[in-house]
Structures are given as structure tokens and as C-alpha cells.
Amino acid sequence: MTEQVKISQRSAIIIERLRSDGMAEDMMIQALNEQEDAPLRAVSSADIDFAEWMNYAKEHGEQLVEAVRDGYRMTFTTVPGMKNWLKYALSMETERDYTEGEEGRMDGLQLTLEQAQQLKDTIAVNWVLLEHEDGSSSLLLRALLTSAEASQL
Fold first, then answer.
1. Could you say which DSSP state residue 142 is in?
2. Are 80 and 9 in contact (CB under 8 A)?
3. Is the alpha carbon torsion for 93, 67, 53, 24 positive or negative?
4. Cβ(46)–Cβ(13) under 8 Å?
5. Alpha carbon 143 to chain centroid distance?
6. Antiparallel, parallel or unpaired: β 127-131 and 137-141
7. Model confidence over 100-124: pLDDT tens digits?
8. pTM value?
9. CA distance 145 to 10
10. H or E element: which one contains 80?
């Protein structure tokens, strides 16, 4: 597998939000290639300044087209950012699909093999996915790993 391009948490969430709003990948790629925000606004229900987002990504060297087409890895993710990413990328909500323990820990995720792989490929290095023997998974901020959990990696 080739190395994923790295993009900001914000860009990852916007991409996943557009996907969850029903935007076709080829249309998103075309809009990004042409730096045209109208198609994005037409599909999305979000109050996002897409022109500003594309300018930010360009200024910071984010390869959005490659991220949409080939996948990406987030450079850093906050707890609220991870919750939003789970919401838009995997349609998962707190309390319905996982529980939050201490800040930075999400337990009880029931992931398909594809979802688990997507998370492993996408999450920033400050997060880790633990897969438990009972079939559930946990997402943790790396700094919260206990020595026992670290030995599972």
C-alpha cells in the first residue's frame, strides 16, 4: 500500500461530511481540481466556507484530490474531531454506537473488518485502535494507554 497523504482533521471531516451528504467522489474530485466551491455548496447542508477551505488546503500543501481518491491520514485529531469523523465517516454516534469513558477514550465500537481497517489507515498518530477479544474495539488517545493496553499493540 502506498503511504496515505496527510491532511488536517478539518479537511478529513469536510470530505467525510460531503460524502455523507451524498456527494459522489468524482464530482468532489472535479470540484477540487477546478477549485470551484459551488458544486460543494449545492450538495452540502453544512455551513462551510468551501472556498476558504480549498485556499487553506492549497496554502498548507494538502493534496485534497489524492485524499479523496486514494485515502488519507489525519495529521492530528482532537476528541471532538474524532467524534465528528466517526459521525460522518462511519455514521456512528456517542451512546448509540460507543460509550465515552474518560476524556479521549471511546469504548464498545462494533466495527466491521473494513471499518477497522479504515480507522487504522486514517487515524492520526495520537490515537490508537485496540481490538478486544469480545469483538469490540476502543479508540484511545495514545497518551492514555495503560501498559497492559500498550502490550496489545
1. G
2. no
3. negative
4. no
5. 19
6. antiparallel
7. 988 889 999 999 999 999 999 999 9
8. 0.89
9. 25
10. helix 79-90
